[in-house]
Amino acid sequence: MSETGKSVFLVDKQTGVETELPVMGGTIGPEVVDIRSLYGSTGMFTYDPGYGATGSCESGLTYIDGEKGVLLHRGYPIEQLAEQSDFLEVAYLLLNGELPNVAEKAEFDEAITKHTMVHEQLSQFYRGFRRDAHPMAILCGVTGALSSFYHDPTDIADPKQRMIASRRLIAKMPTLAAMAYKYSMGQPFNYPRNDLNYAENFLQMCFAVPAEDYEVDPVLAKAMDKILILHADHEQNASTSTVRLAGSSGANPFACIAAGIASLWGPAHGGANEAVLDMLNEIGDKSRMAEYVNKARDKNDPFRLFGFGHRVYKNFDPRAKVMRETCHEVLGKLGINDPLLEVAMELEDLALKDQYFIDKKLYPNVDFYSGIILKALGFPTSMFTVLFAVARTVGWISQWKEMIEDPTQRIGRPRQLYTGPSVRDYKDLSSR
Ligand code: SDX
Questions:
Q1: Quick one: pLDDT at residue 153?
Q2: Are 19 and 9 in contact (CB under 8 A)?
Q3: Which of 25, 66, 272, 280 is the residue whose CA sits 20 to 30 A from 371?
């Protein structure tokens, strides 16, 4: 962040007192008004519930231009990464700031592969859940429990320990997620296999059964890897901000990631991919689409069209475009003719022509098509957000590491506008 030499002035109309606030600049994107001196000079806070216009930190990981539908990871466009890179390479890029060379890539892939197993005792945690427990509930609980296996040696002030914790989480999240799926199916857990890459390994841990050999379908593995790339990181979204805030107190990184999983679960955030499928199933066919678009338009109806709209993207979510192409690719290669894809495409077409959606700039987001591909890959709806969490663990831990390494970092502690009762004296029970 650098001084721009510009500043803005707050003028108190009553007193005429002016408060000068410096404008700071980054590499690309909106400049920021540095308000750190505001309370000291005016006795006032800013007010921005939902943080729609508030920069909570300085970051070099991901840049989004919502108007132009741009998403960059360390400067590389998401479309290029999705087409030419692989998920672990994007993980390396987010963690370290640069794409790895041949040796660095080999070392990182090897390190992640060798950390995919979890402590054998951890499998006992799963047995405490009901079989019908939502896999996100299981993943949230078990990830938090991981902190009890590594709490002592994780000195987050030590860069080496931070990198070990980061690699452990990236490596183990697919294993924990696959175990949550197997548990919900009543099938035995599969151990990771070191002869498979990250996406292949995840698919085999989810879908292999002891009764027969399991061959990873390269088409599905490539699609899985691309879906993980598309969900890796996304600036200061709700779950990432949760991880940063939890981590700002110095909390154990495993516990911070568990907090991120909890936030991601909401249907307004990562839970939307599950909600999209439920919505498409509820709509059922084209004849009912207009009814649902009208419900989404109706201010008195809480219904929203899941998979549409975004706090930042006021144009197409670039991930949704790649996801839509992948959707057609996977279903075409698998020869699946999913009527839900027809419904989704029709719904997208209808919504994009609807004046309400045009006025509100509501476009399909990353969640709109992901569910259809995940269903084609064989995952139940309840696993969709779990897959989002597996991918986003890379972003969460990279953002956590960036925060801890920020020399200006301090505990996050927002203020408020108090609208409760003024001071008053306690009343005895007899006089109430
Ligand atoms: C993700 O932040 C990220 O980066 C998130 C994410 C990531 O990678 O981390 O991109 C992943 O969470 C994608 C979003 C998934 N959620 C959904 O698809 C759920 C449906 N979408 C909405 O709930 C909503 O669009 C949000 C939550 C995504 C964004 O909400 P905002 O920014 O708070 O916008 P808003 O609710 O203020 O909406 C602006 C207007 C409102 O109308 P008015 O009050 O101005 O009259 O648009 C309307 C909303 O009612 N609106 C919708 C709508 N989304 C917004 N109306 C109908 N259907 C919708 N989907």
A1: 64
A2: yes
A3: 66
Measured in whole angstroms, the distance separating CA 42 from the mean position of its chain's CA atoms is: 37
As annotated, the active-site residues are 310, 367
Cβ atoms 374, 273 nearer than 8 A: yes
Task: Tell me, using a 6 A CB cutoff, whether residue 277 lines ligand 1.
Answer: no
Other Cβ atoms closer than 10 A to 165: 26
pLDDT of residue 315: 84
- What are the Cα distances from residue 97, in Å, to 89, 127, 228, 401, 427? 11, 40, 19, 12, 60
pLDDT digits (tens, 9 = 90+) for 370-409: 888 898 889 999 999 999 999 999 999 999 999 999 998 8
Look at ligand 1, atom 42, and give the residue with the nearest C-alpha.
360
137: number of Cβ within 10 Å: 16
Instruction: Report percent pLDDT > 90 for the chain.
Output: 70
- Report pTM: 0.93
Contact 338, 376 (CB under 8 A): yes
Helix (H, G, I), strand (E, B) or coil at 2: strand
- Cβ–ligand 1 distance for 90 under 6 Å, the answer no
